[in-house]
């Protein structure tokens, strides 16, 4: 059971109709909504000011994404439990959620019953992913994160620069090393991440997974 009297919730979504629907659903079921926001900056301010028990955040919001809000709030010491509520089912989003150690990840198609199941889990310090996700998607995301954790700090830096589409020459100059050193690092990264393809495959992979990489 959830102790509704001692539970405070912040909700954030940039779609007014969806935000109102979520607010109405929570209040109908007797939950205390201490604030709602239509953009990431408002959401962050609410979380830092109200210190809610749980924050439900959309990912794609103006000013700051849901992931940006969570990362910044955690850096500022917030003890809030964070649950993402999104349309995104792609592996890269799941991987990023796992990398940020987000407490819960729900889909907007989920029922309120699923939302309550998620809240019970995260309040018991468990991580909850929507039952709508296929098990292999969660497994693939975990495997991607495992590989990324094999990278050294130098390799992570190079991968982030590659994600910004910087050339070997530009990366070498910014890190004050030789192009040969950068090429060696790139080769090691490709090997650790088990990426297959041609000479420019790392740059393409980094660009496609930029959101995950920049969160490392």
UniProtKB/TrEMBL annotation:
Q: Does the keyword DNA-binding apply?
A: yes
Q: InterPro entries under this entry?
A: CheY-like_superfamily, Sig_transdc_resp-reg_C-effctor, Sig_transdc_resp-reg_receiver, Tscrpt_reg_LuxR_C, WalR-like
Single annotated GO MF? DNA binding
Which residues are annotated with the PTM 4-aspartylphosphate? 58
* SUPFAM superfamilies documented for this protein: C-terminal effector domain of the bipartite response regulators, CheY-like
Query: Could you tell me the Gene Ontology terms of the biological process aspect for this record?
Result: phosphorelay signal transduction system; regulation of DNA-templated transcription
Keywords annotated in UniProt: DNA-binding, Phosphoprotein, Transcription, Transcription regulation
Where do the Response regulatory domain residues begin and end? 8-123
Q: Where is the HTH luxR-type domain?
A: 144-209
Name assigned to this protein:
LuxR family two component transcriptional regulator
- Organism whose genome encodes this protein: Ulvibacter antarcticus
